């Protein structure tokens, strides 16, 4: 029999479940409505696509596609991506709006705020950049690049107390916490290095120069190839009124790469998605200035694929490959390059010189021929090109042909005749040289080329000291003549004239302060034949270090400089540093395939240092 109580309970249960289900469905429906409503609201706030008529088709399509995606599905990811596309295309205002909307939709997505902060910093909008970066570290306190950007903004706003706190926070960290894993970069410096540099600048702003000096000296001891630290030391000593030290450290900075930025993988993403010629070229310039060849090559590869018609990208591809020893890869690009730059004399000459330096003599000669075809060429420009044909393209016959033509037409021009005589001396055309010498000696008897000609004649007669005297007269008249510098270096070193050599290297370095070969030779003389033992040894180590870390080193010079440093430290009884440098130099000598006998000599030194340390 049916129980009424049971029926009532069943009815109440069904009603209750129905109500629960109803409310659940209603709530879901409401959430859906709210989501659609919010999406519609955000969709309405998406920036209008700017005028794209004057940009490449690939960039236009990228913007339109990103905008369509954001409007079809208005998520923080799609809006953030649209913001990145705008940012990487130099459309800063719509980019900032997209990042702002993306953060509203998902307040925990700190990366959109980070991009927004970078954008405002780039535009010089410090207050907005500060607000964005503070929001980033509030959401995710371990984004150390955001902390670094915060410190930089505080520094630029003269908020020295806050800047100091931020940079000290970073420098106090173990390097493992700020280490950036990136397969795109070949060189890496910890964020602490850049923070120490910035902290020193803050101290200088506060006139706490002793603190700044301590930070910078620590940086240069630990990171000897970090150019910006030496540059800042130069600025510091200039503030202190120490002109000699200021000049010394600025010169050392110029041995090195003085531009360097922390690795920022989020910023890298902008570069690798950009199809804007202006944006990508700026990133390539930064990478090349910072000597990060791996990242430079990645950017160039990206640019060639996405901006294939850019002649400026083509120029950078050619320059980079020639500089890094992969010139074979760009030979097929030279026809197009000449066509695109046929009206740019400077570019044609620069690439011609780069080709010659990289060993592509035939191609170099072709570029100099292109340079000759410019109707605007003056006699002095033609004379310069004649010299380039010989020095860079190894095309002696063409060099002499051009120079004879120029000299014949300008037989009373002392400068042209000096160039002509000098070229004939170099190329061995003695009869022509004799005629030019007679004419030039009559017009300008103290011309450098006259003295070189006379010096060579004395050298042939084994009158070495007379020859050196004449070459020094030529050097006084023309101290930047590299042929003279090289010739005098050989004479001083061959004849064991160490004091004269030291004086000469110092003078030559005053004109070429960043020449690694001159640095190495001066270091060698000071270490090998010290007059004031301790002072000269320390200075010899210093000049040898400059040659060793010089960013424009030659392999043989670098190895020789490494040996100088090791020997210098050994003589100063610092055998630990001596052993460290000799082992490092052996590694470089093996890497550069230096002569086996020389390497064995280095190994013998290493054994001597090691046995004395352990004895």
Give a quick set of tags describing it.
615 residues; mainly alpha; 0% strand; 33 helices
What does this structure look like?
This protein is 76% helix and 0% strand. It has helices spanning 4-45, 57-72, 76-87, 92-105, 110-122, 126-139, 144-156, 160-171, 175-178, 191-205, 209-222, 227-240, 243-255, 265-273, 277-289, 293-306, 311-323, 334-340, 345-357, 361-372, 379-391, 396-409, 414-427, 430-443, 448-460, 464-477, 482-494, 498-511, 516-528, 533-549, 555-571, 575-591, 596-614. The chain starts with a helix and ends with a helix. Among the domains are: 10-45; 496-615, Alpha Horseshoe (Serine Threonine Protein Phosphatase 5, Tetratricopeptide repeat). It is built from 33 helices and no strands. With 615 residues, the protein is mainly alpha-helical.
Task: Show the helix and strand layout.
Layout: H1 4-45, H2 57-72, H3 76-87, H4 92-105, H5 110-122, H6 126-139, H7 144-156, H8 160-171, H9 175-178, H10 191-205, H11 209-222, H12 227-240, H13 243-255, H14 265-273, H15 277-289, H16 293-306, H17 311-323, H18 334-340, H19 345-357, H20 361-372, H21 379-391, H22 396-409, H23 414-427, H24 430-443, H25 448-460, H26 464-477, H27 482-494, H28 498-511, H29 516-528, H30 533-549, H31 555-571, H32 575-591, H33 596-614
Helix pairs in contact: 2-3, 3-4, 4-5, 5-6, 6-7, 7-8, 7-10, 8-10, 10-11, 10-12, 11-12, 12-13, 15-16, 15-17, 16-17, 17-19, 19-20, 20-21, 21-22, 21-23, 22-23, 23-24, 23-25, 25-26, 26-27, 27-28, 28-29, 29-30, 29-31, 30-31, 31-32, 32-33
């Amino acid at each position: 029999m049916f129980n009424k109580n049971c029926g009532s309970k069943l009815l109440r249960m069904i009603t209750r479940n129905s109500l629960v289900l109803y409310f659940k469905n209603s709530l879901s429906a409401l959430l859906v409505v709210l989501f659609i409503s919010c999406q519609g609201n955000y969709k309405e706030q998406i920036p209008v696509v700017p005028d794209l008529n004057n940009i490449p088709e690939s960039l236009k399509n990228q913007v339109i596609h990103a905008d369509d995606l954001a409007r079809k599905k208005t998520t923080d990811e799609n809006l953030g991506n649209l913001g990145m596309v705008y940012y990487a295309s130099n459309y800063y205002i719509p980019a900032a709006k997209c990042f702002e909307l993306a953060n509203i939709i998902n307040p925990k997505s700190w990366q959109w705020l980070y991009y927004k902060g970078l954008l405002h910093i780039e535009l010089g909008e410090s207050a907005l950049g500060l607000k964005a970066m503070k929001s980033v570290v509030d959401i995710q306190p371990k984004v150390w690049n955001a902390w670094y950007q915060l410190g930089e903004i505080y520094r630029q706003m003269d908020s020295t107390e806050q800047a100091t706190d931020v940079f000290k926070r970073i420098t106090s960290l173990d390097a493992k916490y700020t280490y950036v894993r990136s397969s795109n970069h070949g060189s890496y410096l910890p964020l602490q290095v850049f923070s120490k540099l910035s902290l020193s600048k803050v101290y200088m702003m506060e006139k706490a120069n002793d603190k700044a000096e301590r930070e910078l000296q620590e940086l240069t001891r630990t990171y000897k190839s970090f150019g910006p630290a030496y540059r800042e030391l130069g600025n510091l000593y200039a503030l202190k009124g120490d002109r000699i030290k200021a000049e010394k450290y600025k010169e050392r900075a110029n041995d090195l790469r003085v531009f360097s930025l922390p690795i920022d993988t989020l910023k890298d993403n902008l570069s690798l998605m950009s199809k804007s010629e202006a944006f990508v070229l700026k990133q390539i310039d930064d990478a090349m200035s910072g000597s990060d060849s791996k990242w430079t090559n990645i950017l160039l590869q990206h640019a060639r694929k996405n901006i294939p018609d850019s002649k400026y990208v083509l120029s950078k591809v050619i320059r980079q490959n020639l500089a890094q020893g992969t010139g074979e890869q760009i030979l097929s690009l030279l026809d197009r390059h000449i066509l695109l730059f046929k009206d740019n004399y400077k570019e044609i000459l620069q690439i011609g010189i780069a080709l010659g330096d990289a060993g592509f003599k035939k191609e170099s000669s072709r570029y100099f021929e292109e340079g000759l075809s410019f109707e605007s060429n003056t006699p002095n420009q033609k004379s310069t090109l004649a010299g380039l044909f010989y020095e860079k393209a190894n095309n002696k016959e063409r060099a002499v042909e051009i120079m004879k033509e120029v000299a014949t037409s300008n037989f009373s021009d002392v400068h042209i005749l000096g160039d002509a005589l000098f070229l004939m001396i170099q190329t061995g055309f003695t009869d022509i040289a004799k005629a030019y010498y007679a004419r030039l000696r009559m017009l300008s008897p103290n011309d450098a080329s006259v003295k070189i000609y006379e010096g060579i004649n004395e050298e042939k007669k084994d009158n070495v000291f007379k020859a050196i005297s004449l070459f020094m007269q030529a050097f006084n008249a023309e101290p930047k003549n590299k042929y003279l510098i090289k010739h005098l270096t050989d004479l001083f070193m061959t004849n064991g004239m160490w004091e004269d050599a030291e004086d000469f290297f110092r003078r030559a370095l005053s004109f070429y302060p960043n020449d690694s070969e001159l640095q190495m030779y001066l270091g060698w003389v000071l270490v090998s034949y010290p007059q004031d033992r301790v002072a000269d040894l320390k200075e010899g180590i210093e000049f040898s270090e400059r040659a060793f870390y010089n960013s424009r080193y030659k392999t043989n010079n670098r190895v020789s400089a490494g040996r100088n440093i090791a020997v210098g430290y050994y003589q100063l009884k610092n055998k630990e540093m001596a052993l460290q440098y000799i082992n490092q130099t052996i590694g470089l000598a093996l890497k550069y395939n230096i002569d086996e006998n020389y390497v064995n000599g280095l190994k013998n030194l290493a054994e001597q240092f090691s046995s004395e340390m352990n004895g």
